[in-house]
Design brief:
Helix content: 10-25%
Strand content: 25-35%
Number of domains: 2
Largest sheet: 4 strands, mixed
CATH topology of the largest domain: 2,3-Dihydroxybiphenyl 1,2-Dioxygenase, domain 1
Distance between the termini: 17 Å
Radius of gyration: 17 Å
Length: 133
């Protein structure tokens, strides 16, 4: 358990309301155009498919694609969700083969994990993390 986790537990004010990441939502200019890219990347069809929203089941979470609007555009905006991977270099190669570009890293962080960020063809950030075995 991390120092912060121990501190919260000792104080008794651990946040119980957050249970898990259930959906990562990516904003894109055109859902139907983006859907084809996501199908190629994931190798599967969406489990929900509408003209204005598409959803895929990936590693126990939902990846949703939504059209950009006046409140949210695509792109890197300060928050990145990191997906755990077994081999960061293999995962990077897969994303790059689908048109992604490295944005940061890969670096071996001070916390002893490999991390990187890639941007997809729509400008959204994908974080990848490889923890030690």
């Amino acid at each position: 358990m991390s120092q912060k986790g121990r501190f919260i537990q000792e104080r008794g004010d651990q946040m119980d309301e957050l249970l898990e990441i259930c959906e990562v939502l990516f904003f894109v200019p055109n859902v139907q155009v983006a859907k084809a890219w996501y199908i190629a990347l994931f190798g599967e069809q969406p489990h929900f498919d509408d003209e204005n929203y598409c959803a895929f089941e990936v590693a126990g979470s939902t990846v949703g694609i939504h059209p950009i609007d006046d409140k949210t555009s695509s792109g890197v905006a300060g928050q990145v969700t990191y997906w755990r991977v077994a081999d960061i270099h293999k995962a990077i190669a897969r994303f790059e083969s689908h048109g992604c570009r490295l944005f940061r890293g890969p670096i071996f962080g001070v916390d002893k994990v490999w991390v990187c960020q890639l941007t997809d063809p729509f400008g959204n950030a994908w974080g990848l993390m490889q923890r030690p075995q």
